[in-house]
What does this fold into?
Amino acid sequence: MGNRYKDGRTIIQYFSINSFATNYRFLRREEIEKLFSSLKLSTPVHIRAYAMVHLAYSLGLRPDEIRKITLDDISFGKGELALPERKGDTPITLPIPEQTIKAIALYLTKARPKTLSRRLFLTFHYPYRPLSSNKVSYHISTSMKQAGLSATAYWLRHTYAQNLLEMGQSIYEIKEMLGHQNIQHTQSYLHINTELMRKVLFDETL
It folds into this structure.
């Protein structure tokens, strides 16, 4: 399989044929604006969901990755998040956007239970257990439903990937940021057209 992708133009041909083989969905700019403008901060549950939505959108994290975050994984000074147990055993450190840092800080100061647990996201009832990945998915999906969007938590991950592509990141860089083990999985996330792929790979236009 390795030789199949050595030539960038072979990649373009492969993507142009196969990029819609899997029906991954993503949110458009106006839908993202609608989502974030609708997020509430009136209860601890809302504040926790607010932080989780930011992590899913700005870092493309899976629900299972969000639930595993510990306080020790976050560096507020450096603005970084370490993911030591990422799917596929590929640890990575990601830069955290300012708005996401603020969302996490708000949750820590206004909503997170006072406990010795190092997990970031906890239930609000004693003994304050770590949230499951299903609960993370539920709260993110509920936030989108309240914004009038029929979407799941994974739509935000797909949106993150699409945003990286549109900003000029290469498919290989996107693969690393998403924590994918093979490039075919990454390409299935992206609604790629030939012109955009040429621009990303070769800095040229058709």
